[in-house]
Amino acid sequence: MSISRLRTHVKITWCPGCGNFAIMNAFIRAILELEFKIKDIVVITGIGCHGRLHEYLRLNSFHTIHGRVLPLAIGIKLANKDLLVIGFSGDGDAYAIGINHFIHAARRNVDIKYIVHNNMVFGLTRGQVSPTSPLGLKTKSTPEGNFVRPINPIALALIAGATFVARGFTGDIEHLTTVLKQALLHRGFAFIDILQPCVTFYNTLPMLRRKVYKLEESGHDISNFDEAMDRALESDKIPIGVFYKVRRPTFEEQIPQLKGKPMSFRDIEMERVLKFVGKLV
Ligand SMILES: Cc1ncc(C[n+]2csc(CCOP(=O)(O)OP(=O)(O)O)c2C)c(N)n1
Ligand code: SF4
Ligand SMILES: [Mg+2]
């Protein structure tokens, strides 16, 4: 199957050169190379430039409100645990309004994949500061320079309990595809923060090209939590690749009621539902 089979005919409205193109192409390549059944995939997108992605993909999808990608993804996964559920957010979507969901999804180890397009600004609303904007960055909302320390999504995901934590870079599609494939194959909460330029409001590409290096070429042990945290806190250089991977029981595996057939394929026992509702009123 070629890349075009997974693309719709909807006209792409991203600015030419936007990092979103690389994320979409690497994602399609990962899906095709892993030969997943297309009918089993569900993509959820939030509000932001990244949130146009579902329109361009010929996949089951759900476009939700700003910051609520993870509640939707978790609900879909609990309703049908056989689906491959993949959420896409921007850095504003994920780390500002949606940050509570991020921490709890990681902590619970829900078996969903979470891909964050981190351009370090609010792109769609025309370039305001975001939780990952660096100190000093001048934006429309910080004309004197950002004075609030940025959060570190990789360290946060590790400390929250994510069982797969990685960073991608849109300047290296081959590498990004490999990282995405590993995330898609992981059983549990798989998180990838992807560094991408917003060429219109904050072009990070030259800086990123100077600073990134690949974890797998530096002897990093992905099973070692402390080592992963040390790498996550590096700032002079920017490591990309998988920081940490561990197998732990997923949220769904630990809920006895979810054993057996997916909930969405079960008959609804109306009598029991009414009895339960009756107890509440
Ligand atoms: C509840 C709510 N608050 C605020 C907004 C306005 N809004 C739309 S997109 C966005 C931020 C987009 O930034 P990001 O998530 O980083 O996505 P990007 O556009 O950079 O891909 C905001 C604040 C909204 N749509 N809904
Ligand atoms: S505004 Fe920025 S993030 Fe949005 S499409 Fe343009 S380059 Fe991409
Ligand atoms: Mg953004």
How would you sum up this structure, described in words?
The chain has 281 residues and is of the alpha/beta class. The protein has one domain (3-251): Thiamin diphosphate (ThDP)-binding fold, Pyr/PP domains (Rossmann fold, 3-Layer(aba) Sandwich). It has ten helices and ten strands. The strands form two sheets. An eight-stranded mixed sheet has the order 2-1-3-4-8-7-10-9, with helices on both faces. Strands 5-6 form a two-stranded antiparallel sheet. β9, α9 and β10 form a beta-alpha-beta unit. It starts with 18 loop residues before the first helix and ends with a helix. The model has no long low-confidence stretch (mean pLDDT 96). The structure holds thiamine diphosphate, iron/sulfur cluster and magnesium ion. The site of iron/sulfur cluster has 11 residues, from loops.
Instruction: Estimate the mean pLDDT confidence.
Output: 96
As residue ranges, the low-confidence spans are none
Kindly report the CATH topology.
Rossmann fold
Tally the helices: 10
- In CATH, the architecture is 3-Layer(aba) Sandwich
Output the CATH homologous superfamily. Thiamin diphosphate (ThDP)-binding fold, Pyr/PP domains
Number of individual domains: 1
- Relative helix content: 25-40%
Gyration radius, rounded = 19 Å
Structural class: alpha/beta
Instruction: Provide the spatial order of strands within the biggest beta sheet.
Output: 2-1-3-4-8-7-10-9
Separation, N- and C-terminal Cα atoms: 53 Å
